[in-house]
């Protein structure tokens, strides 16, 4: 039998359903890859027994001739930001180390209902704050990719770095991600995989450890566009437990996949042509335009004039919300408690939070607390919200001229581990192309485009109108079919 | 205008009072979670994952709590904001699991309204007064810390966490403890009429933050203090009395009043500093990103309005105007939900029983309900079973009285037996001989005998000594053992004496 771990979601689902192999065989194969990839540090906790249990249930269903579900027999990795009943959920933090939820997030529950199984909980940047997976309390995730001729460790992107590495290194056919300001798209781009952040509200936030509530959105990370469409269909849906959930039916994205873009206009935002962007990135963008034109689309220049303000606004809004969302980690009810001898309540808070949060989390709590404080609120938070509105209006105007927007996902390829040590602001710039769509709540995906001169993958980003995941997926498929991207990292771990 | 003044060494001082009343919304479930709101449950048994602020939990507004706040706003004739929004008020405390309270700072659900407090000469409120209400917003309650369970640790009870509160903020329109007391009582009455809060101050369903400042008449507002969590009308008045005098003392001794938060000490009737302005929290309010703005549609607003009951002021006016009750009776009967409820049930039962319009029996029923019935109940003490005090039984007594079958005294006696035993009033009247004699034959017989035995008095009466009429009435009633119908006795006496 060929290596089952080379298969993606659709191939596994169809293979299991067609009796080419059993779900148990698939789960065992991926469990073995997970166990053999400790060096990558993609998983905080592996749950091989969960994967097997789900697989056995699917095999039993098949034996009885029952429906196997959209993800029947597909084992996946679960970003450790999703609360999983009975399985430790940490958000890669010390403060939640050992925390075992008694509830299952809506998104993960939807996936299990669709027949998926869990390989384990994936590492990430602590509380999803970071672009390199270097802020995890449980250590860095390493990218399976290396620069040609170099042995230096590279970052897998962030915050969904465990997810991107797991999929790129064939430890999982797919994984969940969450995207607040690029946390699905950027890691997907730098590891040569596909990931989509749907319209804000498509996937329930219930049971997902909150970073910035008005921006957080879950989505799939997988090997190709079709797999993303299948998995997103399983994850999405209205959830009355999340007030911001979209009360709309979930379209049949997989069925609707169509790479013919005849009649579609694709906008190229001139403001995304920024100084300091790698030439290879610009080249990939040019190729992307050609591919889409070849698929029948008309390429048009558009303007998103407030783009340059998006990143600063994001780094006010997201930390502001985070500073409040993370107040609940106080050592009183669950998680870490550091109670120094003779300490009072305030001392306990200080000691617990000092010990329980990493530097990046503390930095963002400080920023968020500052921008919300009396006397600064209007200058920062109110202004940032105005910018957010303007950024959203930029897109709304653009939709008068185009149906989709094509841009690079990141300004550069994967950088070395520690590459931005001591310069968090430079690191924040990695999100510059991803953040505007987050602020506007728009569906956006990254698809692999090509390898750069160093043999590292680069991604292209497609942004769509609200609720038009289908259009985004279709354009992604058109690129995928033309890019011929089939590179995968050499196994070194 | 209130005449309440503090007499200081330097002259008179006026008091300015504003109240922020926190009223727990009557609802089975909490504001943003499905957990129960029952009072007095075992600690930490009514706590949902949301209340405990577990990771990833999200609030979902409870429509009933919103509805109650809107109905309350309508009851105080306030502007209802069809678009409002929730904000987070951030601070750390062990009774606040989220680390923030979800409240409404910037866009409250209810805007300006007003409430009428009635003139009460005795209490020092010379005339009716309108008290402005600034706003009502809804917010989450916090939990409770228990400091007496362990020598060095405090325990946390999260049962109360997330219960819906309405914060009803008055304008600084009150100028005496009496006005503030009347305001709280009136507000409580309205809340209970509407059914949006049970008004139970002992259980903490209603508590007030009392803002007090003093000034020389005509001058600008002075610096105010805020005394937190005062949980009875009497304490609200005590706080004002104490704070106003304290502030006058401070000012007259050359000091300044600090803008600060204070606590009321029930034991001593005094207030003390809780935290000064310098220690005031920076709550870092911002719109709660977990919640969409609250938008109320016309159908919802219409249902809220149509479900409102007749409110105290309207009811009082109707009692006076339509039912012809005295202002005193009307006010007493409309003050509490239970009182008017009992009255209206009894009124309708009595009118039906007698076969007259309600208006014709309203005064009789009001007097019975306000003084006779409670008097009998009170005199019996534990012997009375309140379960026997049915409207049917009382209506039956009132009907017998209306027909002249029983006297007022007999009505009381019958009611006593009803309360003790639950027996049927008519059966009691018959079997206990508690009926007036209206049989003219028997009365005439008795009167004839009295006239015969008192010829001298008859002569005097006929000679113009009208006062003697009462003597004959008394003698007749005595002869009839008090059971004669007085109206019949009067008539026959008049006929016979000429």
UniProtKB/TrEMBL annotation, chain A:
Keywords from the named record: ATP-binding, Ligase, Nucleotide-binding, Protein biosynthesis
Listed EC numbers: 6.3.5.7
Catalytic activity: L-glutamyl-tRNA(Gln) + L-glutamine + ATP + H2O = L-glutaminyl-tRNA(Gln) + L-glutamate + ADP + phosphate + H(+)
Ranges where the Amidase domain occurs: 29-473
Keyword Iron: no
Active site: 79, 159, 183
PROSITE patterns according to UniProt: AMIDASES
UniProt key word Protein biosynthesis: yes
Pfam families: Amidase
Assembly: Heterotrimer of A, B and C subunits.
PANTHER family in UniProt: GLUTAMYL-TRNA(GLN) AMIDOTRANSFERASE SUBUNIT A (PTHR11895:SF151), TRANSAMIDASE (PTHR11895)
Task performed by this protein: Allows the formation of correctly charged Gln-tRNA(Gln) through the transamidation of misacylated Glu-tRNA(Gln) in organisms which lack glutaminyl-tRNA synthetase. The reaction takes place in the presence of glutamine and ATP through an activated gamma-phospho-Glu-tRNA(Gln).
Sequence similarity: Belongs to the amidase family. GatA subfamily.
Protein known as: Glutamyl-tRNA(Gln) amidotransferase subunit A
This protein's encoding gene: gatA
UniProtKB/TrEMBL annotation, chain B:
Enzyme class: ligase
Species: Alteriqipengyuania abyssalis
NCBIfam families found in the cross-reference section: gatB, PRK05477.1-2, PRK05477.1-4, PRK05477.1-5
Transmembrane segments: none
Keyword Magnesium annotated: no
Oligomer and partners: Heterotrimer of A, B and C subunits.
Domain of life: Bacteria
EC code: 6.3.5.-
Sequence ranges assigned to domain Asn/Gln amidotransferase in this UniProt record: 345-497
Swiss-Prot/TrEMBL keywords: ATP-binding, Ligase, Nucleotide-binding, Protein biosynthesis
Job of this protein: Allows the formation of correctly charged Asn-tRNA(Asn) or Gln-tRNA(Gln) through the transamidation of misacylated Asp-tRNA(Asn) or Glu-tRNA(Gln) in organisms which lack either or both of asparaginyl-tRNA or glutaminyl-tRNA synthetases. The reaction takes place in the presence of glutamine and ATP through an activated phospho-Asp-tRNA(Asn) or phospho-Glu-tRNA(Gln).
SUPFAM superfamilies assigned to the protein according to its UniProt record, in alphabetical order: GatB/YqeY motif (SSF89095), Glutamine synthetase/guanido kinase (SSF55931)
Protein name: Aspartyl/glutamyl-tRNA(Asn/Gln) amidotransferase subunit B
Family: Belongs to the GatB/GatE family. GatB subfamily.
Catalyzed reaction equations: L-glutamyl-tRNA(Gln) + L-glutamine + ATP + H2O = L-glutaminyl-tRNA(Gln) + L-glutamate + ADP + phosphate + H(+); L-aspartyl-tRNA(Asn) + L-glutamine + ATP + H2O = L-asparaginyl-tRNA(Asn) + L-glutamate + ADP + phosphate + 2 H(+)
């Amino acid at each position: 039998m060929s290596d089952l771990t080379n298969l993606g979601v659709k191939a596994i689902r169809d293979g299991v359903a067609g009796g080419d192999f059993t779900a148990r065989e698939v789960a065992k194969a991926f469990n073995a890859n997970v166990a053999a990839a400790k060096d990558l540090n993609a998983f905080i906790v592996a749950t091989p027994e969960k994967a097997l249990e789900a697989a056995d249930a699917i095999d039993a269903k098949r034996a009885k001739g029952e429906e196997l579900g959209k993800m029947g027999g597909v084992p996946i990795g679960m970003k450790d930001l999703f609360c999983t009943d009975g399985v430790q959920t940490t958000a890669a933090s010390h403060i939640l180390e050992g925390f075992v939820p008694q509830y299952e997030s809506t998104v993960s529950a939807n996936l299990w209902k669709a027949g998926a199984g869990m390989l384990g909980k994936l590492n990430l940047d602590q509380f999803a704050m970071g672009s390199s997976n270097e802020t995890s309390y449980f250590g860095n995730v390493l990218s399976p990719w290396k620069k040609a001729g170099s042995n230096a460790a590279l970052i897998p992107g962030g915050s969904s770095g465990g997810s991107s590495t797991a999929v790129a290194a064939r430890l999982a056919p797919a994984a969940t991600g969450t995207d607040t300001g690029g946390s699905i798209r950027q890691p997907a781009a730098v590891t040569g995989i596909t990931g989509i952040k749907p319209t804000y509200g498509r996937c329930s936030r219930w049971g997902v450890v909150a970073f910035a509530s008005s921006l957080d959105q879950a989505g799939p990370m997988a090997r190709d566009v079709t797999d993303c469409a299948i998995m997103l269909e399983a994850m999405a849906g209205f959830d009355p437990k999340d007030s911001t959930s979209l009360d709309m039916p979930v379209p049949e994205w997989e069925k609707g996949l169509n790479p013919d873009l005849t009649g579609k206009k694709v906008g190229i935002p001139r403001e995304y042509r920024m100084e300091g962007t790698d030439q290879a990135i610009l080249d990939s963008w040019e190729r992307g335009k050609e591919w889409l034109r070849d698929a029948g689309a008309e390429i048009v220049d558009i303007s998103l004039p407030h783009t340059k303000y998006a990143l600063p606004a994001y780094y006010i809004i997201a930390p502001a919300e985070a500073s409040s969302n993370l107040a609940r980690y106080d050592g009183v009810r669950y998680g870490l408690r550091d109670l120094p001898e003779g300490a009072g309540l305030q001392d306990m808070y200080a000691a617990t939070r000092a010990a329980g949060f990493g530097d990046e989390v503390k930095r963002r709590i400080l920023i968020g607390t500052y921008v919300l404080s009396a006397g600064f609120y209007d200058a920062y938070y109110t202004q940032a919200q105005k910018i957010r509105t303007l950024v959203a209006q930029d897109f709304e105007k653009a939709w008068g001229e185009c149906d989709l927007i094509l841009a690079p996902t990141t300004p550069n390829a994967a950088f070395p581990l520690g590459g931005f040590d001591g310069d968090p602001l430079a690191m924040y710039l990695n999100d510059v192309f991803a953040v505007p769509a987050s602020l506007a709540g728009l569906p956006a995906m990254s698809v692999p485009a090509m390898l750069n001169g160093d043999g590292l993958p680069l991604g292209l980003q497609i942004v769509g109108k609200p609720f038009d995941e289908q259009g985004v997926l279709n354009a992604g498929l058109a690129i995928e079919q033309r890019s011929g991207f089939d590179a995968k990292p050499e196994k070194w771990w | 205008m209130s005449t309440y003044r503090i007499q200081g060494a330097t002259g008179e001082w006026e008091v300015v009072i504003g109240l922020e009343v926190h009223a727990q919304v009557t609802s089975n479930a909490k504001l943003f979670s499905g957990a129960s709101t029952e009072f007095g449950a075992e600690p930490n048994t009514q706590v949902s994952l949301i209340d405990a602020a577990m990771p990833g939990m999200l609030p979902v507004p409870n429509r009933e709590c919103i509805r109650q706040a809107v109905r309350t706003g309508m009851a105080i004739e306030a502007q209802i904001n069809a678009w409002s929004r929730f904000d987070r008020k951030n601070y750390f405390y062990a009774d606040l699991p989220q680390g923030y309270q979800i409240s409404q700072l910037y866009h409250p659900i209810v805007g300006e309204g007003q409430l009428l407090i009635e003139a009460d000469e005795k209490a020092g409120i010379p005339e009716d007064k309108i008290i402005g209400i600034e706003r009502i917003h809804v917010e989450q309650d916090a939990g409770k810390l228990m400091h007496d369970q362990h020598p060095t640790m405090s325990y946390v009870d999260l049962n109360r966490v997330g219960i819906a509160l309405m914060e009803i903020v008055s304008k600084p329109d009150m100028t005496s403890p009496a006005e503030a007391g009347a305001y709280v009582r009136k507000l409580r009455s309205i809340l209970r009429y509407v059914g949006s809060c049970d008004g139970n101050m002992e259980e903490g369903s209603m508590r007030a933050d009392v803002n007090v400042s003093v000034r020389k008449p005509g001058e600008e507002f002075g610096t105010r203090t805020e005394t937190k969590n005062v949980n009875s009308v009497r304490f609200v008045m005590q706080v004002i009395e104490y704070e106003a005098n304290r502030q006058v003392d401070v000012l007259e001794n050359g000091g300044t009043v600090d803008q600060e938060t204070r606590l009321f000490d029930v034991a001593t009737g005094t207030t003390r500093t809780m935290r000064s302005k310098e220690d005031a929290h920076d709550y870092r309010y911002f719109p709660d990103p977990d919640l969409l703005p609250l938008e109320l549609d016309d159908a919802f607003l219409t249902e809220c309005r149509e479900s409102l009951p007749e409110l105290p002021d309207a009811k009082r006016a109707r009692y006076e105007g339509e039912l012809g009750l005295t202002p005193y009776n009307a006010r007493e009967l409309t003050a509490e939900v239970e009182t008017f409820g009992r009255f209206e049930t009894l009124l309708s039962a009595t009118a039906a029983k007698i076969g007259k319009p309600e208006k014709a029996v309203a005064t009789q029923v009001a007097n019975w309900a306000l003084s006779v019935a409670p008097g009998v109940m009170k005199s019996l003490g534990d012997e009375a079973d309140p379960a026997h005090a049915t409207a049917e039984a009382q209506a039956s007594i009132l009907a017998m009285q209306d027909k002249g079958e029983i006297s007022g005294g007999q009505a009381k006696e019958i009611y006593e037996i009803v309360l003790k035993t639950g027996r049927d009033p008519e059966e009691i009247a018959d079997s206990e001989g508690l009926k007036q004699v209206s049989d003219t034959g028997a009365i005439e017989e008795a009167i004839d005998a009295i006239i015969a035995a008192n010829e001298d008095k008859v002569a005097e009466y006929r000679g113009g000594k009208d006062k003697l009429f009462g003597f004959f009435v008394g003698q007749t009633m005595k002869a009839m053992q008090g059971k004669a119908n007085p109206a019949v006795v009067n008539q026959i006496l008049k006929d016979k004496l000429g």
